[in-house]
Amino acid sequence: MSDTEYWFCLTHHAVEGEHGCKNADRLGPYGSEAEASRALDKVAERNEAWDNDPDWNDDAAARDGGTDGATDR
After folding, report:
1. Contact at 8 Å (CB) between 45 and 67?
2. What does the angle CA 57 – CA 58 – CA 61 come to, to the nearest 5 degrees?
3. Which residues pair with 30 in a beta bridge?
4. What is the largest CA-CA distance in the chain?
5. d(CA 41, CA 47)
6. 20, 7 in Cβ contact below 8 A?
7. Which residues share a beta bridge with 26?
8. What's the mean pLDDT in 8-32?
9. How many whole angstroms separate alpha carbon 37 and alpha carbon 7?
10. How many distinct helices (H) and strands (E) make up the chain?
11. What is the pLDDT confidence band of residue 25, given thresholds at 50, 70 and 90?
């Protein structure tokens, strides 16, 4: 583990070093404190991109009658 790794704690909404809360409660590691402090912004950006990705848009299947290409067996 490197001294230059940081995590964002979801419990305390704070940037932590190696010795912080348990990994299940934090995002990372990130290469800098600044990067870790933007963790929730990055999550929101990724969610927005995925929500608007036509290759992964579940709403299209609902509009097309609920079929997603899967076959019933």
Report:
1. no
2. 115
3. 6
4. 53
5. 10
6. yes
7. 9
8. 97
9. 8
10. 3, 3
11. very high
Question: Domain residue spans in the chain?
Answer: 6-55
User: Mean pLDDT lowest for which of 11-15, 19-23, 26-30, 57-61?
Assistant: 57-61
The amino acid sitting at 32 is: S
pLDDT of residue 55: 87
Q: What would the two tokens of residue 9 be?
A: 């704690």
Select from 45, 41, 21 the least CA-distant residue to 6.
21
Report the b/e string of 54-68 with b at 16+ CB within 10 A: eeeeeeeeeeeeeee
pTM for this model (two decimals): 0.68
